[in-house]
Amino acid sequence: MKPLSECTVLITGATDGLGKMTAERFAQQGAKVLLHGRNEEKGRKTLEEIKQSTNNQKLEYFNGDFSSLSSVAQLAEKIISNDEQIDILINNAGIGGGPKSQSIHETSQDGFELRWAINYLAQVLLTKKLLPIIKEGARIINVASVGQSEIDFDDPNLEENYDGYLAYTRSKLALIMFTFDLSSELKQRDICVNALHPSTLMSTNMVTDHFGQAQSTVEQGFSAVEFLATSEELEGVTGEYFEIKSRARAKTQAYDTKARKKLKQLTEDSLATYM
Fold first, then answer.
1. What family name appears in the similarity comment (predicted)?
2. Active-site annotation, residues
């Protein structure tokens, strides 16, 4: 793994919490950091703050709304047309789904259940569209969660008996299943793809909004992200699910090849218009 100072890192959801800390710490180490956010004003402000605090001018900001798949597709096109080559992709953007969101069934601009759209479909679409500019030997980190629930393929949009936390945990298991499949696809290009539960209920706005109380710090979460992104001992390690810095076992459905095949087909059908 080459030093961070020679890497281009794309971090989604980089204007708050874990994403923002990762952007700042990697910029301090001299990386070229591409930040993504969904609020242009907040994004530009974050960009300038990090430039000033790190004295690193190799930073770019890209706007994109993950609740709209056409916006995600445009985001990918903007990054590609900016002539970027990515060494590390950190799919960190997401929406929570704790007790405070349990009964409100929200949908994305495309009509998908909102957590499924943002935490899963948008991540897959962005990653797939960026594959041509992801370098050989790169690392992709999908920020998942220890909270995982089996997907019901008869009701992926949770039309019946909606529960916000269940929607969240299903979206995170789907992201882990995608991680396993993508790692196989990219092995020949020496690109490592792993999923990560960075820490439990970090002190972020998302956790406060949905759970009310934090159990760990953003610093602890960053330490896990940094380990997956830069550790030499993980050279060649791919298709794994990590809890903090240890390899762990995800929910059983993640290892079910038939379930992963169903998910892949469902995903391809959902994203066909935007690919």
1. Belongs to the short-chain dehydrogenases/reductases (SDR) family.
2. 168
